[in-house]
């Protein structure tokens, strides 16, 4: 894979955020909300899987249109889209598993193959998988297709590890957290930036889902029993605060660049 670091788009043209510590914190929180939020809407709020899936799918479509129409990165639109992708990605996997009875082994393998195909097409067309140069409509469509597939794959892989293989929520969070740490170490030691980014991006999904399940599930099932409503509300509040800070910093950066 080609990092294409020498071809990064100017910051004011790129429609995705820089990959910083704040990026990863918001990403993990978003994956947790995707797990707990989907559970709350479908079960806690009584909407059911069908209505929840239809409403979240419609909201994701609206957010994607907003994101694709922007001429530069706007934090609140980008992260709103990520949260909704997380919710829809979770529901796609849950629908296949619970609704259609598809094996987690099969769905994990199918999503992995689909993601590999998306990356292959992306690279064949653009000669790059760089996440620092998303400044054309075509690249952005590849980017969001890959993002949606990583959430579905991460959900299936996480459920496979924690439920089908019996790892449990706590050990699942520890195991996937350790893998994220190893991926970060590989990047720090000179590993390919794009490859380690996408591996880390996939791993944060089952880590966030295991963390969410550990916080929300009843103690009899190995969780802490905090409930999906309060966990989702707490994590959403932190996401809003961090995105508001990112929005302020981004605006300040644009004003500073314009004043030069």
From TrEMBL:
Pfam families: DUF347
Keywords for the protein's UniProt record, in alphabetical order: Membrane, Transmembrane, Transmembrane helix
Signal sequence residues: none
InterPro entries linked: DUF347
Transmembrane segment boundaries: 40-66, 73-92, 104-125, 141-158, 164-187, 194-212, 224-246
Protein name as catalogued: Membrane-anchored protein
Organism: Ottowia testudinis
Taxonomic path: Bacteria, Pseudomonadati, Pseudomonadota, Betaproteobacteria, Burkholderiales
């Amino acid at each position: 894979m080609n990092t294409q670091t020498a071809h990064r788009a100017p910051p004011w043209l790129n429609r995705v955020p820089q990959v910083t510590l704040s990026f990863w914190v918001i990403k993990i929180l978003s994956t947790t909300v995707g797990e707990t939020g989907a559970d709350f809407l479908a079960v806690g709020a009584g909407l059911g899987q069908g209505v929840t899936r239809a409403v979240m799918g419609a909201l994701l479509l609206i957010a994607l249109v907003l994101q694709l129409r922007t001429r530069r990165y706007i934090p609140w639109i980008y992260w709103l889209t990520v949260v909704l992708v997380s919710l829809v990605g979770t529901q796609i996997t849950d629908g296949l598993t619970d609704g259609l009875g598809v094996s987690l082994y099969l769905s994990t393998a199918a999503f992995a193959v689909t993601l590999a195909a998306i990356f292959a097409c992306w690279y064949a067309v653009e000669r790059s998988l760089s996440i620092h140069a998303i400044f054309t409509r075509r690249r952005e469509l590849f980017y969001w297709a890959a993002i949606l597939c990583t959430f579905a794959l991460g959900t299936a892989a996480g459920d496979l590890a924690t439920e089908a293989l019996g790892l449990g929520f706590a050990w699942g969070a520890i195991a996937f957290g350790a893998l994220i740490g190893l991926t970060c170490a590989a990047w720090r030691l000179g590993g390919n930036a794009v490859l380690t980014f996408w591996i880390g991006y996939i791993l944060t999904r089952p880590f966030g889902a295991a963390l969410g399940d550990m916080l929300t599930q009843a103690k009899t099932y190995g969780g802490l029993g905090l409930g999906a409503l309060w966990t989702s509300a707490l994590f959403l509040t932190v996401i809003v605060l961090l995105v508001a800070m990112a929005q302020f910093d981004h605006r300040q950066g644009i004003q500073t660049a314009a004043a030069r």
